[in-house]
# Entry
Amino acid sequence: MNQRLKILATLAILLVSIAALSFWSLNKSSTGTTASCAIDSGNCQLTLAQHSYQVSFGPMPARALQPMTLELAASNTNITKVWVDLQGVDMYMGVNQFELTDIGNGWQGTTELAVCSTGKMRWLARVIIEQSQGEPLFLDLTFDAE
# Structure
């Protein structure tokens, strides 16, 4: 019985640590610039730090366990890395982070959404753009999924 309690306590600490890390990564934008867009249509055009960004994410409407591709085209030539932190807005849905690959004329990456027990869920896809010069940029994309 004592061993069982140790295992449960370790698992609880691990889950709290993961949740805290995810919360921290979503809120570390104090050192960068953020733009927001509701991307339920699958496309957004944003201007941030004097650069234009074209984002497509889909297929839309989004569905759990269905592969989704995010593509980013930008006028910013200082981009060194792009990655996405995907989180449930109203419910913790675990850690879902994925890196986009430089495809020459933009950046592209694929992920899947976790299944939500409530049926419909609001999501935040925070696109983190790391640059060779300057602070990181954040594109916050919100959308609904079933």
Remarks:
- DSSP finds one helix and nine strands in the chain.
- The domain at 2-145 is CATH 2.60.40.1930 (Immunoglobulin-like).
- The beta strands are 33-38, 43-48, 51-58, 68-74, 79-88, 96-102, 107-111, 121-131, 137-145.
